Records
---
Amino acid sequence: MKHFAVLYAALDQTTKTTAKVAAMADYFRTAPDDDKLWTIGLFSGRRPKRVITTTLLRDWAAERAGIPLWLFEESYPIVGDLAETISLVLPPPTQTSDHSLTYWIGELRRLSTLGDSDRKAGILAAWDSLPTGERFLFTKLLTGGFRVGVSQKLMTRALAQATGQAEADVTHKLMGNWTPDSTSWANLIDATDPTADLSRPYPFYLAYQVEDLTTLGAATDWSAEWKWDGIRGQVILRGGQVHVWSRGEDLMTDRFPELARLADWLPQGTVMDGEILAYAGGAPLSFTTLQSRIGRKTVPKKLLVEAPVILMAYDLLEDAGQDIRSLPHRDRRTRLAALLATLPPDAPARLSPQIDGSDWDTLAATRATSRDIGAEGLMLKRQDSPYLSGRKKGDWWKWKVDPLTIDAVMIYAQAGSGRRANLFTDFTFAVWDGPDLVPFTKAYSGLTDAEFGQITAWVRKNTLQRFGPVRQVTPEHVFEIAFEGIQASPRHKSGVALRFPRMSRWRHDKPAAEANTLSDLKEMLANYG
């Protein structure tokens, strides 16, 4: 654990990517294999489940520190992190330990099987044997909230430096449905065949939002297609099986069983990239319809009929078992079109149509019609571009339509978490329905740090009521709420739900009485829902 704590401190104390990569590379050269494997798992989001509620942790920490709970609760927002608060208020350890990270992961799992009294004894014993830095990390793991300020790209670069492998090869190895329990360092990193796991997807190529079309040159150098509003996914046919992966590395094969039918027509050794859409009658259905499929491990027949899905394919990454990502986009697209042309009309895959446009004005006019067909805008891909890994600028851009907006009144506020625990950052907004304000959405992003500080000071002086951590405030401030889509929702009092809401502007110029109405929202629902 000491080595892991040293690594974490090194990463936390610098913003320089070169320093972060150097610290991780040194750790991956020297740490035990099982600790290195768990470190990769933790840094890539494969965290152990929460062992204990934060309420009990607060009670036990205050008791062990010999302070009243109210004093602990007052200290927490000042520190801004629960694990750090606990590690600071506890008395110095009376014991010592030299256990590894892997040992403490195992201890977390053991504690999760115990009753509260035994679990409390085990956690107090751990706190009493760990110095502040290691105690902080142990508590972070206890809460299931461990995060570190490095991207998977930086970790991959460090692994490549430490092992002498190509970064692209390491990136590929880290993809897939592995956990530290299901593999070993040797099998995951040292193995020479990156395709040993036949279900493993390729790293996704991600696009930035285009900011200035004039930097892209002639429109004829680009391939344009719709940016579909679904789930980005790869469909993999290898070894006689079909695997479906989301961009977030979630294996979703069982949630979309109709895609397995593609094995009836397409050859093994095929990997396609595309958008999984709810689709019927020759057109995409709403994202709300698709959402009914996302959270299910098994799908009943009724839902298969009500929300059928297809892959709207737009790239071919592997053809006849050959990795073709280095080929120009136009060539991969030609191969994909030829492959999909063999499918019958009822097959659960379509070729995403290319959009004709000899100049940017023509494409802009087409882009303006995106919402009419259930798209979010256009994707622009340079004709001669390879399929890269991760988010890179230059060859792929998303050209989304402007978001929908509505002016709403803030009626509730809640403090953030972690380093934002001393600021009010999570807000509930309402629109007018006659003389009443009806809540319809929450938002917590879009303001500057200065604006969050300003609204926090205001909330503290204008609280009407408290409901646990939530404060009802005077309905005075109006914010412009931007969002990507709107759909009907019987779960909400307003009858609508927004997609990706955020605060785009603080309307200091507008009084609360001039905010939008529920009728305005319902008109948007009729036009864009």
---
Amino acid sequence: MNTTVNAADAAGELGPNKALVNAVAKVVMVLAVCLSLYQLYTAGVSPLTALVQRSLHLGAILSLTFLLRPIGPWARKDRLNFWNILDWVLVAVSVYCVWYICSNLNEIFARQGDWLQADVWISVAGVILTLEACRRVIGGVMAGICLAALIYAYTMGDVILAVLGCMLFARLCNSPKSWLTLLVGLAAVGYWLYGIYYEPYLLDMFLHKPYSVERIATTLWLTTEGIFGLPLGVAATFVFVFVLFGAFLEVTGGGNFFIDLAYALTGRFSGGPAKTSVLASGFMGSVSGSAVGNVVATGSFTIPMMKRVGYRPHVAGAIEAAASTGGQLMPPIMGAGAFLMAEFTNTSYLTIIKVALVPAILYYFTVLLFVHFEAQKQGIMGQPKDKLPKAWKVIKGGLHFIIPVGILIYVLMANYSPMMAGFVAVLSTLAASILANIVRWTVNKGVVKDISETRISAGELAKTEGMMIVTGLERGAKNAVMVSVACAAAGIIVGMVTLTGMGLKFSSLVLDLSFGIEALAILLIGAASLVLGMGLPVTASYIVLATLAGPALLDLGVPLLVTHMIVFWYSQDANVTPPVSLASFAGAGVAGANPMQTAFTSWKLAKGLYIIPIIMAYRPMLGIANGKDYELMHWPVIFTWITTLCGLVAFAAALDRYLFRKATVPETAILVLAAGLLFWPDIVLPGGGVIPAWVVDSLGFGLLVLVGVMQKVWRPAGPAPAPA
């Protein structure tokens, strides 16, 4: 018995193997640091050919994935076993597949369509590696959708079997959404049977010529029309550099600085900590690529503050979830959306962030309204001024964090490429932090309070700063893994949609179901994004929706930039919309609240996410409407911003039944009518006449003012509000 135990322990099967863990950690650190340095070099010094740039990036990302993420819960990374050996084999195969592309680049370009057998085998291996990385990082649902796309291209187009395969695959992977996948699978089978026996034309729209394994695999791996397509191209250039920028802000203390600044500015107001959460999440989310990561990062500070002053746990978690989701809409980064949109629409990056700024501010204004009304109803007052950090002291202590942001804005305004802007932002953040610590060390005679309370030598300071740089480079590469894997997997879907022509067919289906009504088509896209968002990250959801549903809005006459902005906004809704709202669940975990209760509350707080895109389609909120392009500061655009803001006030007050006090039933009805009128465009009369939007808006504004006056003048009898 003892002999068996000792032999197993010697083989590393029992107990953690510290030597193995340390060795893997060192390999991961070296690989991550090299990847970050490579990305900085290609961003600011010398760019490479698209296929080489993207393949080297993906090779490093796949290697990091297989080293960091186990194949399953049974395969522990701290033991030497078959599964860990398999992971190292997958790393070696990933490296070889990438090396094959780089070493045979000219030959691959020369024999497009006339592939060697080695090309096919390498391509098949690359696709399988991407699917496995997707399953480990994102989950079975995303991998199942990719597998469904491959089956759909390989078969004659029996999309129902492909969807059913996706559902069963997700079920086998123990997906937490397995009950939902099973229902969708049953609905798909029902649709298939109905089409076979009653309406064959329902299936005809999905049929196409089957494609061979050779055509599918080589298209995905040896061209820029599949895995190495536009989504991964954006992830391997713009997105990574800005993720690295966010990582350096985090390791140098920039995240805490922005939270303290928001708390200093809003803490003394009613519901101050909640408003701090909204502002801090806006600051952090604008440079973060993940709403869930934003919830965890800022929520660990803001949610306890909200609970401490009287917010119920599920409300505190919901506020953080709604605010963090808005961070993905806030320029300049927009969770990689700005870069993708610029490429999809062939529009300059600066134009994208200019038109996206005001809608994002309006979204945050809506969340702040709900926060304010909740604070007033609960009697939650602000913090005493003496308990808040001094704004000037915070700014003075973190001035070096504002400098890189200012440099970033200047470089973007000077029309440099986003890659160069990110490169400059990373270097300026690093330089500003090191310089600030050196100045503190010099002034305080060897003491750097941000690093150590004890006196340190110049050599120790240099070592500490060096470790900070290495940590930032390593964290940036690790943070980019999810986005890059999602974009690579989305490339499979986009490649198969393009190869089979499914995009045009899906677009026709949306057009048929919407009966040519823009608002109904937008709502259908919102419903599709909700389903997709249950298994896909925001970036992948946006790419798939833009490919499948975007053409439907274009056919209805919605301008290209407006179409992509609408699709991008709706791709966020799965973060805060039940039954699967990841940001809300993360907020509930931090707050110790009921997940579904938190999800429904965040759904209410984020209503601007559903209303503002519809206004984009009908009114010149982005400077485009009815076939006309306006300057952003032109009166019709400014008027739309003002009326939308007033409409959001009326809508939030109606939904919360509170403006200056609790609203009565007639007041609530008037607020609903006011909101509808303030959102409505021109009204076309049956006889052909038109009531201009400004007349409708004036009526809505008058009703909103009426309710405000009623609430100020008349207070119905009732119980006194409970004390805080």
---
Amino acid sequence: MANRTLASRRQTVIAIFLVIGFIYLVRLFYIQVVDKSYTLSANNNVLRYVTQYPARGLIYDRNGLLLVYNEAVYDLMVLPRQVKDIDTTEFCRLLDITREGFAERMEKAVTYSRYKPSLFEKQISKETYGYLEEKMYRFPGFFVQPRTIRFYPKPIGAHLFGYVGEVTQGMIDKNPYYKSGDYIGISGIEKSYEEVLRGIKGMKIKMVDVHNREVGSFQEGRFDSAAIMGEDLYLSIDAELQEYGEQLMKGKMGSVVAIEPSTGEILAFLSSPSYDPNLLVGRVRSKNYRLLSEDAVKPLLNRAMAGTYPPGSTFKMVNDLVGLQEGLLDLHTRYSCQGKTSSPIRCTHTHQSPLGVLTAIEQSCNPFHWQVFRTIITNGGYGGIRSNYVAWRNHVMSLGFGHKLGTDLQFELSGNIPSAEKFDGIYGKGHWNALTIRSLSIGQGEILVTPLQLANSAAVMANRGYYIVPHVVKGIGEKHRKPASFNKVVSTIDKKHFEIVVDGMRQVATMGTARWFQIDSVTMCGKTGTAENPHGDDHSLFMAFAPADNPKIAIAVIVENAGFGSTTALPIASLMIEKYIKRKVLRKDVEEDMLNKKLY
């Protein structure tokens, strides 16, 4: 009996030990396999995961001149769980921050995670890093992560290049590639070609001791991955022409866009006022962005694509082309002009009357072009005024107006060529006619264009009827591979009609409003414009291409509140054409006048 009792007790004790052992095994399995927090805590005590940020691709101009490169900076990272007993006063002194700033940063880091590293202070300079590196062992939980920022050796092209900024949570939610603290192209080329420029991130796993000092790579770097630098971009921009244009536009508000007609490559793309792109780099970016955004002259506004203006007289040839195409205008057509007494649109020039299309373009005659427009809308062959207007609008839009051109830069506006539905809404269907919308005949009223569209229209004239979608990137990477295809767009106007209009533009430059700014041995074809501005003085416009045969450059210049097209926009355009074709400017008197002319 006693033996049975003893055996029963032994079995009970063994069962208890087995149960306890099983519980320990289950718990150990849970800790080691199921619950990762303990593994994470252990690893974080000895391992440091350091993201290797790739350098962004470099940017060159069409002649191989380096325009954008990278400089090294350092992000200070913090792992809150490891921050213990540090000299906060010394730490704040090294970083030039306040104790309150230290507390705010630590609170933000703890909120993110006590076990994962996060950004404490971004973009520390090389000089500050040099002081900090020697004393990092005093500050457990902190480490430095190298990265690069943009630098611009020439303070030009701010609106063209755009800028790089820190990702927002919304950007992270849309694209898992990005993590908190990453940088992304916000505007300009940096945004359009972000995936090309950004490269591929890498990772290094470092072992650290209890004093926060690196003691080597984990398993000799077996699990490390190297960052891959972004690809370089080769632009169509001529940096010398771009810089010259920005000098000429200093003290003026407006834009200059120049295009190579045969390829659609943008040679110069500038908006004025501008700013030094280095202002939006590094730790000063936020402060400078605020100052620029509050500036009354709006230097952040990209007027080249996001500025819209009435084209004024630069639009008159468009109506001529539509009239020629529809058989409602030819070289024998004559309309009279009574100068300032003309009605319903008066003329601002003194010239012969009646006159034909070539002289009308040369002299920029308003009544002639009103009569052309009236004939198109009233006598067109599409069954009535509204249908004739729709046909007119379709021709105009085929020339690159009233819609986005599809360039490789972001935030392009469409401009405006009003639809028939728009006028139906204003006046009532069947209650409007050519007289009602007569301002369209001289590029006023509801018509709005961007400087890019106006330059593109000059390219259409140069090509006698087509354009290649304007773009700023010629090649990508070492092999200069072509970017996405940029289409050839053919207008609805027959090529033969462009020869007539081009002859008129040639006469503008040789005998008309542009004759005072001829370039030696270079025949320029152009058209001045003076656009009414309800908010102040008229805008000065000029569009042109040169040489007349085998054109190398098409250009549009818009200078806000500068008066007649021939006083400011024309001389600037002619100087830039001379600079591009001849590589030097001989008309120093014209150059000096424009460099010294300040309008704000």
---
Amino acid sequence: MKYLTYSGNDLIDVDLPDDATVFYPPPPLPGLRTEEIPPALDAALDEPLGMEPLAELVGPGSKVLIAFDDNCQPFPRMARPDIRQTMIERLIERLYRLGVEKSDIELRCAVALHRKMERRELEYMLGEQIMSEFWPDQLENFDAEDPDDIVDLGETDHGEPVETSKAVVESDLVVYVDTIQIPLNGGHKSVAVGFGTYRSIAPHHNPAMTEHVPHVMQPDGSHMHGSIERISRKLMDHARILVIEAAMNGAIYPLHLAWLGKPSHRLSAAERVVRRSTPWAMKALPETARKKIFHSLVSPYAPLAIRAGSIDAVHGKTIETLKPQLEVVAPRQYDTLVFGLPDLSPYAIGARINPVLVVSDVLGYVFNWFWNRPFLKEGGVVIILNPVFEVFHPRYHAAYRRFWDEVLPETSDPFEMKENFQEAFARDPGLVHAYRENFAHHGFHPFTVWYWATYPLRYLSDTILVGPPDDRSAKRLGVSWAPSLEHALGMAREKSGGDDVVALTIPPFMYLTVEG
């Protein structure tokens, strides 16, 4: 069976067994048009779920913090105007009409321990009007290492430290504007993590949270999300939070590329011709040209629904809205997953994907994209198709470079990493400076993404890389290597004891429900 999939910045045809199963995400559901977003937001703010209307929450003299996620989501980046620009512009208009002064409004990108957004990125997301009106004095990135901004709110009843920004607790209202593609994001994670520090994020981003329970990609049954919720509820004792959640559809590809996310029976005649010729055309292009093509992708997402109100009242409705866009039903669990990973990652915006992210994105994200139970059997095998270039962005991925050079040569075990390296990286003055001043991910960040793979690293019998010219990167990452997919499938059969193969076509995104 021929299967078109990614391998870095390439699209390749690979041979799967004739009886392999290939899953495609549901077609993009119709969403709101740009001109429909402001009235939809108005309606949500006039009748929020679980809270009073906006007009009863703020007025003259009120201090308002408008918070928003960084450009990790939606992912890939959204075609302009970004929905956050449209919603925040409307929100600011409403605040002005209610008597809130411009001087009492602050905008903050809730980057947590991600890299800070550069000015050009903020302008792409928020538009020229908001930037000219608020940047830089009233619009900035949250800084989790700013001692003058961080407040300590004590601990949860489980002993988890609760730290956040002064802006959260000193505002009369925090409005968190969120665009949500998958159930991982939004809800209690918004303020509690987006404005969290190393001390308050480390308790839930640690390997013990996922050692025995796989869920990191949705709240239900997740120890990680349970910890986040406890921290969030402690925060809510000190801050009034209204969330605006836009559940996004699956329109990742613009019209001329939509065929990439379709099974053959949904392709038009013209799309079939393009589909057959693409692997040959890609081979004729140099890597730099292919990189430019894929990294220029902008997505025509649209919101399926916009809701406002309390975290508890809104987020469950958001997940209900997302489920038909994401859910794919699998009749059983499989022995082997074949997954072609593109040169794209929410943690490599504006950069190449690095070797650490190759493994952590597939085991931490893709393996965990299920609703009820893993779609691979215990003892199964994951085969990753990617060239795994040893490339690290000199600014954004400074901590990842050191993680590759200093941690992985010693261990790939999450618990040993935590015990022997985590604290030194998180407190390292050079990495703290790079996070604060040079747009780098925090020193703790590469640990967090590796920890999300804790469950599959124990659950699976092997992870095999296909694409690198030799086994050097695989050895460093603590996984296996094969010179070809055919060879990898043979290795997987020996390891798992079965040959039931599944492949996922992502993006767009999907979550599997496993029957039985």
